[in-house]
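Colleagues,

Please find the record for the four-part complex below.
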Amino acid sequence: MPAPYQLGPNQYGKAQVRLVRVDRDTPRHRVSDLSVTSQLTGDFTAAHTEGDNAHVVATDTQKNTVYAFAREGVGAPETFLLRLADHFTGSFDWVTGGRWEAEQYAWSRIPTAASPQGHDHAFVRDGGETRTALVVRDSDATTVLAGLADLVVLKSTGSEFVGFPRDEFTTLADADDRILATSVTARWRYAADAGPLDATAYDRAYEAARAAMLDAFAETYSLALQQSLYAMGSAVLDAVPEIAEVRFSMPNKHHFLVDLTPFDLDNPGEVFSVADRPYGLIEASVLRDGADSADAAWALVGGFC
Amino acid sequence: MPAPYQLGPNQYGKAQVRLVRVDRDTPRHRVSDLSVTSQLTGDFTAAHTEGDNAHVVATDTQKNTVYAFAREGVGAPETFLLRLADHFTGSFDWVTGGRWEAEQYAWSRIPTAASPQGHDHAFVRDGGETRTALVVRDSDATTVLAGLADLVVLKSTGSEFVGFPRDEFTTLADADDRILATSVTARWRYAADAGPLDATAYDRAYEAARAAMLDAFAETYSLALQQSLYAMGSAVLDAVPEIAEVRFSMPNKHHFLVDLTPFDLDNPGEVFSVADRPYGLIEASVLRDGADSADAAWALVGGFC
Amino acid sequence: MPAPYQLGPNQYGKAQVRLVRVDRDTPRHRVSDLSVTSQLTGDFTAAHTEGDNAHVVATDTQKNTVYAFAREGVGAPETFLLRLADHFTGSFDWVTGGRWEAEQYAWSRIPTAASPQGHDHAFVRDGGETRTALVVRDSDATTVLAGLADLVVLKSTGSEFVGFPRDEFTTLADADDRILATSVTARWRYAADAGPLDATAYDRAYEAARAAMLDAFAETYSLALQQSLYAMGSAVLDAVPEIAEVRFSMPNKHHFLVDLTPFDLDNPGEVFSVADRPYGLIEASVLRDGADSADAAWALVGGFC
Amino acid sequence: MPAPYQLGPNQYGKAQVRLVRVDRDTPRHRVSDLSVTSQLTGDFTAAHTEGDNAHVVATDTQKNTVYAFAREGVGAPETFLLRLADHFTGSFDWVTGGRWEAEQYAWSRIPTAASPQGHDHAFVRDGGETRTALVVRDSDATTVLAGLADLVVLKSTGSEFVGFPRDEFTTLADADDRILATSVTARWRYAADAGPLDATAYDRAYEAARAAMLDAFAETYSLALQQSLYAMGSAVLDAVPEIAEVRFSMPNKHHFLVDLTPFDLDNPGEVFSVADRPYGLIEASVLRDGADSADAAWALVGGFC
């Protein structure tokens, strides 16, 4: 029999419920494509210590709920997750909070000779970044986070890295013109006093935040990836007043100028090799002045952001 | 000492040489981003049976050659691989052929407030499909293949699957309106008598083939994924006269209509779950009449296509 | 010019430095194979707001330091990371803490006819789980965490799931004999007052914790995966007194009994299909009584554990 | 309407049917864990050209058949696939052949304090290599291939690479003591005249082939990875008389000696960095004298081997 140790923080649920919702009220269909995760927190001690499942809302039930709720439409991922949060915390006394997360994959209409503006019901999946949303609720508060993952960007010039400290282990030379490339993962937190927005507002905020960070990445002459990051975060806060904080995790995807001198060739910033590992990893938060810290919510994000 | 067994088919080289080439002759940069594999065939028996490396052009040398050749520009992946093929078979008597392969990743200019037509040197990587190229040479012949991988498409209606045979293990019901989704991997073979094209022609053929298969996927009312495939292949052959054959490997990415009746809800083709595995897998070739079969080249593709 | 927003939490460094260290002081070699990540915290504001790199110890320097430190040997991953933490916080005034992480991959000697006890310098990589270590330091405290990832286990009987609440979205039937399978990711925290252990002690603790959790998984008749988790955590705390807390993230890898009745076959717990997604996800912490909570350290783990 | 192009080679079926079979005739359970792919060839022209599914044995039916056949036991993957081949070619006139493939994942009993010889029904998944099997049938012949994937091995000494040709693009120095590491993918072909073996014989052959290649890798002083490969192939042919040919695809997983001289440290073969890409790729076949070539079967393998 196990010793009577203490049960610490815990959460459980169903991960990666793959949901495609077709809006077909008109012949011009719309597609929502998501992977949804639902995790509950509350009083689940007896399940752990005694195997008593009386409080364990089955993860299968959580999955069913995702699909049933999709019957009424998905809207924005943020609003869909908020509906799930309200349902689970409202339906079971012992469920006091949880963590609901979504990844959303974008699709574009296929342009055809017959439908140059895009086909009514044929789509090609956009590659590029994934849109993310995360709702964290505990008894006191609900935090809405949104973001994107894997937005890969590159500057072929307009980036340098000089003036860093040199110690006994430093061999890197100053670089006054280098390729700067990264895969942006960003997550922003809506201010608590902004209240829940509607689906259209979340969608607009997503587009505005994405455009702002791309613009700032492109237009910033970069002295350090940290500087680009801070500029991108500032641009997001400029663009969307409801956002209190934005965090980034940005790997520095190193592009090395290939030394072609053994082959009697110069290489004026033209031929680069690309490494997978190791990579630089730059992570930081940019906060609106006076923003609440919301540390408890960030601790449940599952990574720096 | 090993018994004197026979050395069979063999090839060796360097795989996944990651190359980024920046064309910066004007302030409006262009970026070529590739993963290149070079493998040689010929007389390498002594390396296997005696560890005699006199014929073994080092894989490191093959990598260096890729980077050195990029100094003069990349062009289309097909033309770049042909240059490598000519070099290796022309430089070493005992190298009689080989297999040169590339994946190419596309980048778009970032539109900014200051440069709405796209920034001069800041780019965002397109997701979506990867462009592929493969040159196979043996003493007699050179085969140029091109294609794409992971072009993910979906029709939300306009697809059915009925009339299939029913045996003791059949439980699937007829479907007269289903989601049809697949991730297209395609590879086409240029006719031997088309000769090598120039870079612009390979690029145009790529765009034309891609557009043709998307159009055919969208516009075909699909009775079977096989039928869509054949239509897509025919469209490619219609669009690009230099192509002799096109092959597809198309997983049927199953979308299952969720049964919502336990929740007193109907589901008129709106809410779907998506499975990763198992998946249908449909693979076929469409050939121009009278096309040569080129079986030897396809055997080196590394898969159905 | 970016608005004067506030820089929030930030960390940066080099990720996934792949290091193989061969101990060859005797002909019977030993191999240490790790992926090491080093991230620094401290005063890096100027890099973000002004692009001033005077404080930015280059990530390349961090990589070099990893390799240089390996020259004196690796020892246990925990002790190797502690050496790095001491170095970086001791060498740069403005570096007040950081996060150093390792994954370690195990190798076994190849048994041969000539060396049935295992070859001196030929190894086969163990699959299975990865050993992990993480050292988190801030100005006040150093936390040592260790663990493993991807230890995949399965019980073919001795598991049930009954007595869970049923609501309008519940369709799952009670299961009184099911397959229970999971991929264990665990991380345990050494008590602050245990002080740093030596390499041998960390290695022994790892083996003891791993064995304890496997034993508890196997021997617990499982009424819920939560119950198995709690038993496994308790067993770890029983086995290693220096551990204050252990956390688990355990996906419930669903195995579904296939309905063979359409084929006039029964299926008495023998034939199962396996799903990838969605999956249950059970996450919890088991704490020794009176253990400090160390929330700040867990927040930097990068996930539940 | 598509032009009347010719349908070339084609095959279709269900990929990656995940099957776990528990043999529970005694309390000491046994587990078979496989991913099975079934693809049919024959007359499927009408499905492609007209969307007529009268010949299209549904991929769902193929999946059901896999599960139904597992009710009687799995045996060796080779024998299981042969049963599927016989069924499909024997049940449908127009199915003249196909391609049946399996990956098998190994599990070990968990040793516990109460059951030091391993628990009756609790298992831990072995990592390391995956066992593979492939049956290719056309109207004339059945070819049985077996193998393994991802057997990762390393020699910390006893490997050199010297004497290779030097051209204008060669910069690699001779190495007279290097780490040799590779991830072995091997596939062997049973001689047609060996006939189908029984499950026990296939299992024994697998173990013997695996042991032989490990022994040869370890005991061969390697002048080239090609030489190690040939020795490994010869050892397999020595060990299992029923095998006519064995093919290998072996990436050269480069381990680079780190230059520590900038830090006033020597590095006598002790500290290595490891690269993911690019990598050497060595592929070759070793044939028993007089073995038939079976090129048609290899063309369906989906890669060099």
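Helices of chain C lie at 45-50, 59-70, 77-91, 199-219, 225-239, 295-299.

Comments are welcome before we finalize the supplementary table.
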